[in-house]
Amino acid sequence: MTRREKRWLIIAICTVVMLAIGGFAAFMILQHTDQPKLEESTDGSDIELIDEFVIGMSSDDSNLVVPEFLGNPSQGAYGSNIYAQNPWDLKVFGPNLLIGSGDYDLNVGGVELYDYNLAAERFYSVGFLPDEQVTTFKEIGSGLIIPGTDSTAGSWDWGNWYYISNNGSLSSFGNLPKAAHCFDAVEYDNALWFGLGAVDAPSQIVVSRDGGQTFEFVPFRDNHGERTDPFRVYNLFESDGNLWALCENDVLYVYRKELGIFDYSYNTISLRCLYMGQVANNGGVPFSNIISFADNLLMINGKVLVTGGMEDFRLTESSILPMAENTEVFDALVKDGTLYLLAGTKTSEGWRVSVYSTEDLESWEEVLYFNSSNFARSFELYEDSFYFGLGSSVDEANVHCGEIWRCSL
User: Fold this and answer.
1) How far are the Cα atoms of 55, 68, 138, 290 from residue 184, in angstroms, in the given order?
2) pTM for the whole thing?
3) Which of 182-186, 232-236, 247-251 has the highest mean pLDDT?
4) Domain count within the chain
5) Where are the beta strands (DSSP E) in 242-313?
């Protein structure tokens, strides 16, 4: 082969190599253009992603709405602790929208409970609660129960819970034994159950079978058959006819009625995948919502874990709703057979707040979205209007934290 032929051969080889590299680069660009970054399981488990629907993806601009500012009832209530203005929960009860707030980590000294009268369109004070935070409102029977997240009474011998009757009157009860913290309440088997963060107590769940007048501890048993203390119980919920307790150590316990104990559940999944990459927590409580819907169980805190329910005392058929990058789900509610999810997507200019709906967990639609300085921590639906409570993380607390906004459909 002559020198000239060798030179042309080298040029030809280089050309082929450059074309191959260029083609591969173009392929990679096409693969990544306009594709959402989906959240994945962090523990290598077999949790799958549902890939037909992506929370946080921009869709039809016709869903863009301009919200109406209603006010910020907790503004200035906690001095320089703006983070305590977070509206941890919103709940429509009768003619009022109740608003939770406070900070049980930094101990704000008690909470002024506010509501928004939906007819008069004004904020009112319901009363002062001697607890550091109102985290959740639980509709039980004909009234609302508020677990006392952190009593300010000065003793951990007794914790508080509060009851709002259907006529709007507020009653206070300080008879939860050893309840330094109380995180959840549920009615099950004609009894009232509370999940605690108790100190020097034989258990972390108490039950009342006389309408809340007296309480007794319900023991726990671990996977070796021995009595155990799970430290804190954050969520109580009913599924498959059984009462379940989700504890701080990510272990599920199930109540064995015939034994009168909470028994260790051999869980087939890890729940820690839900805690990763969160913009903001839910007031120190791992799950903002655990909801039964369409024969499934949804566990919500940043991500949305969907299970097929309970079988042999285990979570089954687990999957995670995929989300676009910088997106989290902060709240959920069920109204008239429809599930609504409240999501927030961090943008260069603030947040894109979105509401999604489904009737069967298969077909989803974006109901509305709006642009905001803050994400929405909680939301409620009353008649044809959504109400939103703007929240913030500890590091990004600002004056908008605690604002209440309305979007009419």
Assistant:
1) 28, 32, 8, 11
2) 0.84
3) 182-186
4) 2
5) 242-247, 252-256, 261-264, 289-293, 296-301, 303-307, 310-311
**DSSP per-residue letters across 84-148:** GG----EEEETTEEEE--B-TTTT-S-EEEEEEETTTTEEEEEEEESBSB----EEETTEEEEE-
Give the pLDDT band (50/70/90) at residue 307: confident
- The position carrying tokens 């997106």 is 327
Place of tokens 């058929």: 317
Q: Is 71 within the bounds of a domain?
A: yes
Domain of residue 279 covers 42-76+274-409
Around Cβ 293, how many Cβ atoms within 10 Å? 17
CB 196 within 8 A of CB 233: yes
Q: 383: helix, coil or strand?
A: coil
Helix (H/G/I), strand (E/B), else coil: 31 = helix
Question: What DSSP string describes 225-258?
Answer: S-EE--S-EEEEEEETTEEEEEETTS-EEEEETT
Whose structure tokens read 């943008």?
Answer: 347
> Among residues 179, 154, 387, which one has the least CA distance to residue 162?
179
State both tokens at 232.
Answer: 């804190």
